Amino acid sequence: MRNRAYNGLYVVIAILVVLPFVLPNSFYLDLAIRMAINAVIVLGLNLLIGFAGQISLGHAGFLGIGAYASAVLPTHFGWHPVLAMVAGAVATGVLAALVARPIFKLKGNYLAMATLGLGIILSIALRNEAQWTGGPDGMPVPAFGVFGFELSSDKHWYWVVAILLSVSVWASLNLIDSPFGRALRALHGSEVASRVVGVDVVRYKVSIFVLSAVFASLMGSITAHYVGFVTPNLADFFHSIELVTMVVIGGMASVYGSLVGAVLLTALPQALATFEGWETVVFGAILMICMIFLPKGLVPTLAAKFGKGE
Amino acid sequence: MSMLAQFLQFLFSGVTVGATYALAALGFTLIYNASNVINFAQGEFIMLGGMLAVFFVQSGLPLPAALVLAILVPAVVGILIEKLAIEPVKGAETVTLIIITIGASLVIRGLTAVIFGKGTHSLPAFSGDEPIQILGATLMPQSLWVLGVTAIVVVVLWYFFNRTLTGKAMLATSYNRVAAELVGINTNGVLFMSFAMSAALGALGGILVTPITLTSYDAGIMMGLKGFVAAVLGGLGNGLGAVVGGLLVGILEAMGAGYLSSAYKDAIPFVLILFILFFMPRGLFGARVTDRV
Fold it and tell me: pTM of the prediction?
């Protein structure tokens, strides 16, 4: 099983290496970068939702913290972008850890409510604190550079996110096969049973929540620097839903499902642009149809059909 | 304006909006009890009620006929959602169900935008705009409509669930679906009823409040989420809790917006629910349940 899982990783790396040479123009390169960024976020979120069986409807809020840390701290306080990114990730981690303990005593729909509430509060704060964040219009983000080397062209960004994505896939595969990952899957199966065999359920849930929140925050920073501009839409409820949808459509508890979900749902709005005015209707209908006919998500359903589980 | 008058003013507006939240929360509760589904499309029923009422009135229908139609159409939409999207996936994971209802809400919102446009619409108040003076505060006649109709709905629902066979069958299903099926209750029929009823309740709230708050294709998002807050605040699945939760959310939101910060008005219900859940993980009146192993 281990080797087969890694075969997938080699395929991912191969695709990432070949991709920039076959993409026809910068439009597709930009799309590929955004797909890869989303894929990293979704990998983290899938650890929480798919493997640990917990819901978060507020992850875009964490993404927003990272993005705005990278925008506000260098602009208003002259911080180095790397420092700002780390500060954002630390702040996200601390916030996630603080709220996680009380939140994870909750189950199912109550948990959905709490995470949704947290995300909405964060996005309202970003909209309202206009003197720092530029309000609903957003604000520009300074360029990102380390050691005098500035990441400016899309090609540079592509290789950065490609490496991040490969490392994330590798780390996720390892994590799932580690004692930590087995404990997560156990508590998804049955919390009581895993408590009986000595799994500290709350501690594991909190750790995975914090980990996925920090993933989201770091990728929020990357997004901010790559796009060069942030708006509160990054942090709003709808974006949280998009991220969860990527997890579920690709396939819960499937590493490669996360990648497929991120790729498809990042491309979908582009594909739907031709439906002028009907985008929302078609997007909603696709969500419903996918979930009704493939409730386990694309990758697990197809894998089961062709008889080779992950 | 005296302090008392100001307080009353905030209270009036809070109770009025709160009544709408209560109707939305009752809608969440009905569907949750029948199926354990949180219907994220609940807010769209509120929007649909308001938008359809505006449309039917503008197309020349007499007000009562327009209002009845604006309740019936969303009820049919609710039934369609249940038949096409919820019944086929019974027993799916919570996340899957959440995404299905969110998909449904996007379809409804998108269709509304395509058909009626993205503008903001208003409905004339049912009995004039002459404000009533109470201790220095003003109360709009429409607020009385909202409160009166909500009160009637609550009484009718109470009667329905406690004194009629259909109502008792719905309650029985919410307590234990399998047991209900064993004594011959058609639980699919219950699911069907609860979607129709909760869509109608949402639409009713949307219609009543539109003369005060106006409406547009995207008005349902926040309304629905706050209705969800109200339902969770009262303890998911508890009808009385939903009503109390709705009023509380409305009042605290109005007080917070008035005394603290109007910019953070929309955040207040969510701050409130986080605090409540931290200390009372099942809301104010939620039942204690033990998981079966």
Answer: 0.89
